[in-house]
Amino acid sequence: MLKPDYIFESSWEVCNKVGGIYTVLSSRAKTLQEEMKDRILFIGPDFWKEEESPYFKEDSSLFAQWQWEAKEQGLKVRVGRWTVPGEPIAILVDFTPYFAQKNEIYGWLWENYGVDSLHAYGDYDEASMFSYAAALVVESFYNTQLSPLTSNHSPLRVIYHANEWMCGLGALYINAHLPQIGTVFTTHATSIGRSIAGNQKPLYDYLFAYNGDQMAGELNMQSKHSIEKQTALHVDCFTTVSDITANECKELLDKPVDVVLPNGFDNSFVPKGAQFTSKRKAARKRLLEVANALLGEQLDDDTLIVSTSGRYEFRNKGIDVFVEAMNRLLRDKELKKKVVAFIEVPGWVGEPRKDLQERLQKNNNCQLSTVNCQFSTPLEVPQVTHWLHNMSHDNVLGMMKYYDMHNRKEDNVKVIFLPCYLDGKDGILNMTYYDIVLGNDLCVYPSYYEPWGYTPLEAVAFKVPCITTDLAGFGLWANKVFGHYGELEDGVKVIHRTDYNYSEVADAIKDTVAKFSAMDKKQIDACRKAADNLSKKALWSEFIKYYHEAYDIALQRAEERLRHLS
Q1: CA 493 to the chain's CA centroid
Q2: I need a surface site. Which of 62, 236, 321, 382 has the fewest CB within 10 A?
Q3: What is the pLDDT of residue 150?
Q4: Cross-strand bridge partners of residue 259
Q5: CA distances (Å), 154 to each of 33, 180, 345, 554, in order?
Q6: Residue 73's pLDDT is what?
Q7: Rounded CA gap, 142 and 136, in Å?
Q8: Are strands 77-82 and 89-93 parallel, antiparallel or unpaired?
Q9: Cβ burial, residue 12 (10 Å; 0-12/13-18/19+)
């Protein structure tokens, strides 16, 4: 098996925390850094310029000679370390100068690879110019730093790994200009598959019949689909993150993947022992304080805390079916405990509620003076913790209003929308997502479109049993590990989901929460232990072997190409 001497990996989310790919790369970095100390170089967009980035620590001594040469070549780069476990080297590049050459770059792309950039809109130009800049960084570094090393030895084996359509242009540039570098492309979700699902069209039953190019035209996705498809066709090794997305690639991009690279997890930051217990206690206390202040109630620690979280894709992430299930749970005779269900999904947030902040401050003062301080009346709109810019058009609030879900005193199920990033500075919870997630009793992620699914993996890593579906890559993987459809007792309940069984899914969630509410401490502890055990099978130490397989394929093909060229 061929192993790389150097790996360059580019992504829009290197040192730029916007979604799940950040978690994939940042949690995997430690494993690769341990194997290839400072020979794995991540390339990301430089949005920070002169400001200090919370995810990046600049170091002018790293590759100082090359930094000077790069600037001489007109590249605007900053070199430093990504402040994640393993602290790998990161190169941030300013891509704005290349907008002036946009038409020439797109012309080259069309002539050499038939990529249609004419229909581009939105973030296409920005992503493409970053991708081009990232490729120039690799070209400069390779020619000045790595090429001289091969003069007395056999050529260095180098990998360029591009993530998502946003980095496709760079992969094609490397293919054309540096044929000795093995290229790997990972699509974490096909742009056209996500678009079909997001446009309320049935994806799975008709997957075999869809034509990707035709659908791209219909949904105005020509340019993103075109760069993704051509990159998949021309790189040395094409990969995706799950079997379910591999099927999507074959049908919509007309290219089977070479390897599936499941997303692993680094559990080094999951608290252990007494620290875990105290953090869980603190999270539950804070969640219940916020709920009680908002609702004017006295929900105690026996309350079942349930949550869903992720990107605000109302249908794709199953937020709609979660609200539906909680509405049905209101009338379920099998429910043995009160439930407070949090929807932790960033919306178009305006500001934290002043009235809620005042109550929380008053509650804090009462605790300090050991006075019992309880609220007996709910705040106005007791379903949301932050005001939104689009209160009257928000999907979550609209659905709750439609179902007359107003968190009344007599309701045994209360649903609270937390429409902000849980970064520790939201003004209400003021705790990070990882400090909050372990306070849950049960997490629910009933996705319709989910190539992998980090949220359920994170939940089980924090010993929280969860519910997901077999349309999520993680759910399919869990079923494969169990050898059957996952049940609560396995740590993950996997619900069968199709294009059309929305109502059955809502019922299955409702029944599972009700079942969990009736469990005793011993049964709950067994579920939590099973969740923890499953998470250990999804560590990067278990999954990194698939990356080595991808690197080997890419390097073999690069060597074969060089033989043909010579």
Answers
A1: 21
A2: 62
A3: 66
A4: 239
A5: 24, 12, 51, 18
A6: 96
A7: 10
A8: antiparallel
A9: buried
Residue 494 corresponds to which tokens in the numbers above?
Answer: 């996997």
Give the mean pLDDT per block of 10 residues along the chain (566 residues): 96 92 95 96 91 91 96 96 96 97 97 95 96 98 85 83 98 97 97 94 94 97 98 98 97 98 93 97 97 94 97 95 98 96 97 96 81 84 97 97 96 97 95 96 97 95 98 97 98 97 98 98 98 97 97 97 84
Q: What secondary structure, in 3-state letters, does 337-355 show?
A: CCEEEEEECCCCEEEECHH
- Identify the pLDDT of residue 561: 93
**Model pLDDT, residue 365:** 84
Predicted local confidence at residue 153, as pLDDT: 66
Which residue from 498, 496, 517, 518 is spatially nearest to 508, judged by alpha carbons? Answer: 496
Q: Which two tokens stand for residue 250?
A: 């074959």
* Residue 532 C-beta-side C-alpha neighbours within 13 Å: 13
Place of tokens 């869809």: 210
- Which SS3 state, helix, strand or coil, does residue 172 take? helix
Asked if 229 and 190 count as a contact pair (C-beta separation under 8 A), the reply is no
DSSP, collapsed to helix, strand or coil, labels residue 195 as helix
User: What pLDDT shows up at residue 18?
Assistant: 85
CA dihedral in degrees (307, 350, 56, 76; nearest 10)?
140
Distances, alpha carbon 9 to alpha carbons 41, 105, 165, 183, 494, in Å: 6, 21, 14, 10, 33
pLDDT at 148: 74
Residue 117 near residue 124, CB atoms below 8 Å: yes
- Distance between CA atoms of 221 and 353, rounded to whole angstroms? 38
Alpha carbons 39 and 33: distance in angstroms, whole number: 8
Nearest to 313 by CA among 122, 473, 445, 415: 445
Q: Two tokens at 440?
A: 């849950």
Q: How far is it, in rounded angstroms, from Cα 240 to Cα 231?
A: 13
Q: Count of CB atoms within 10 A of residue 305's CB?
A: 22
Q: Which amino acid is at 247?
A: N
* Distant-in-sequence, close-in-space partners of 431: CB < 8 Å, separation ≥ 6: 282, 283, 286, 422, 424
Which of 264, 416, 423, 263 minimizes the C-alpha distance to 353?
A: 416
Return d(Cα 381, Cα 180) in angstroms, integer.
61
Which residue in this structure is represented by tokens 């007792």?
489
Q: CB–CB of 470/485 below 8 Å?
A: yes
Torsion on CA atoms 237, 240, 244, 248, rounded to nearest 10:
-70
Distance CA 506, CA 509 (A): 5
Q: Which candidate, 251, 262, 264, places its Cα nearest to that of 214?
A: 251
User: What integer pLDDT is reported at residue 370 of this predicted model?
Assistant: 64
